[in-house]
Amino acid sequence: MPDSLPLRDRYLALIDEIVQLTLQGKISSVEMVYQMLQKGITSGTGEIFELALSDRLSIIQSQVDSEKDELKQAKANRSLRAIKTIQNQWQRYWEQNKAIEAIALAVREITTAAADERLATFLRFTDPNQKQPLNSSQLQQLAKGLQQFAQLDADIAQISQGIIRGLASWQRLQDHLISWMYEQNRELGFGGVPGENGPWATWAKKVNSEFPQALFRSLALEQSAIEFAEQQRSLTLSDWVEMALILQYLQRGLVSWFDQQPYNVQAGSKLSISTFLTFAVIWSQLASGFGNTEAVYGDGGSQVMLQILRNFAQRSYFPLYGGIFASFSGSYLRNALDYLDEPLRQVGGTQEKARILTLLGYSQRALGQYQRSVNFHQQALEISRNAGDRPCEIANLNHLSRTYVQEQDYGEAINYSQRALILSRQAGDRTGEANALVNLGYSEVMQAQQLEQIEPETYEMPINYLEQGLKLLDKLGDIQSKALCLSSLGIAYLVIGEAPAAIKYLEGGFKTAQTCGDLYLQGRNLAHLAEAYYQLQNAEQAIYTGGLGMYLLEQIASTEWKQPAGLLTILQGQIGKEAFQNMLQQHRSKIMAIIGVDGYDHIPELLKTYQQDM
Fold it and tell me: What single-letter DSSP state applies at residue 152?
């Protein structure tokens, strides 16, 4: 078997040789087959061997199926048995050598890639969506393998150095992955007061390398990652690779830890969700900043961001019915999901893309960008339908219904909720069905109000739909959808003037939204609670719930913060500024328990801003 043959032909010759020796009785054991494979296969070329083996198997199987001559068929059957022996020993070889194979393949592909493709090629081997992404010990071996080519190419040397430094930095950070969670008065998540507390500040103190340390400090102060990246004019490829590995290991380490918290499934998944989103947005911002100075680094940032989003979209807790999460906060992330829009436009229609667009559509609705929300959901609807992702398709029909309610186009809202209801029942999607019932009931309540229909019986059927949805969600244990349902029921009772019933459901909606961490639903429930208490002439509770709701909605840049601000302005005019401030002061400790002292102090400032803009 001459080595000068192309690799595929060489492997076909090896397979034919083993078959012939088997037929001649010169191979008497599977161990001999294994030894020939071990000797004949070059590391890092297993995929080529597997394709060659598949070709030979197809040809011989075809001979067995079509041969009429008994002697020739018997020979073909013996050849088929020999090929299947080779196949079994190949599986054994692969299992025992897959790490070596993977490292050798990575070395070969990185060293033979074009100069502007080397970073992208390296990042492909760290992608968590691959069947066998390289782990830390394999990356150490990869760095050693690349060192052999370091003298031939400076970029290869830089990638090798970056891997070594990145793994060393991660080793130092590993013991401090979650230590920041135990700091005094520290809330879980990435929001909070900028400065010396929280994850970024903790990690900045523990890492030795200058570039990741500067990045962590910038993030701790909630400074723009875009501006930070634009300022890195002397950044080396080694620096970039080190940073990439550190951020990847931090993100995966946190998600793994949150996923394994058995004491609070909701908190665990909520924090996993915010971790995926936070790191995806940071990578998107870095990609934007680097793209203005160094295209290769910008493309690399987008590549990692998409890897994170694809991995996130495959998780069982991916929020098809939610979007803005409590620990996904901080001023530099207020409109953060916008940063994911542009890179996603460059990706073809995939199931993962449909799910991310669903998340963007929900978030745009929360921000008051209704047309953008419709556009995202329509794109997601088409992609999910083509991809056969029925739950995602149904979710987008439901989201379109909610968005059209916000636009006061109740006919379209009812249309989409009915389509969602029919499709969910056909597909057996109980979560989709529950949401469709809620949306249908809510849309019909709002339409009846718009048409000024005051007869109580007009609202009986819509409220019945809402209550059916709530019962179903209770059985399913879907707290995100339950928060939405309770909120919808509360608003429905508010619309028909039954404030006590509205308060019961809205308070339940607020508590449930707190559990699942949805800031938008928390703020929305509180804003409507303020209206319900105002109807009952309970100024004190209206000020407490209205102030808190106004703050939470403004923090996620939702235009709906002006609704409670308007109500509070009317109340302040009715009872006077001093009485208003006294009532707010009475709830200071309760408010601070939710949004902190800075949040409490910001409420009067927000009210002034609203009044100045009137």
Answer: T
